[in-house]
Write a structure and sequence with these properties.
single chain, 137 residues, mainly beta, six-stranded mixed β-sheet, four-stranded parallel β-sheet
Length: 137
């Protein structure tokens, strides 16, 4: 319900009521999907910008498939978006990832490994393409 709410303050309220910790002055756009099996594995810091249609997958498994018997295919690990980071439209962040302070995830990126503070990552899978220091005068 929160993902489709077009009123930002109400959207944030609904996410918080569902147990998603969202820091102060963070903006979560429409279409955020959080997959954590209701275990509260996702944390979003302060002043974070989350663009439309971002997916945070903290819990991933093959469900009822025969493949579920292979334990290493299942992952259930926390995701943390640290303060002042920016997550581009349509980005997908996988289990166990920390997006560091002031880091940028480009639109459409699939993030499978943690991103350090101030790093810029893009692509599938996401790779480091720069550093925020390069853009500061």
């Amino acid at each position: 319900m929160a993902a489709r709410c077009f009123i930002p303050k109400l959207r944030h309220f609904l996410y918080r009521r569902s147990g998603l910790p969202i820091g102060d002055r963070t903006f979560v756009n429409m279409g955020l999907t959080v997959v954590d099996d209701y275990k509260n594995l996702v944390t979003i810091g302060s002043r974070v910008a989350v663009a439309p249609n971002v997916t945070l997958i903290a819990s991933s498994d093959p469900n009822n498939s025969w493949l579920a018997r292979i334990e290493r295919l299942s992952k259930c690990q926390a995701i943390k978006l640290e303060d002042d980071c920016w997550i581009g439209a349509g980005a997908i962040i996988m289990p166990g990832v920390v997006v560091g302070e002031k880091a940028i995830v480009a639109a459409g990126a699939v993030v499978t490994k943690s991103i350090g503070p101030g790093e810029i990552h893009a692509g599938v899978p996401a790779r480091r393409i720069g550093d925020i220091k390069d853009y500061i005068a």
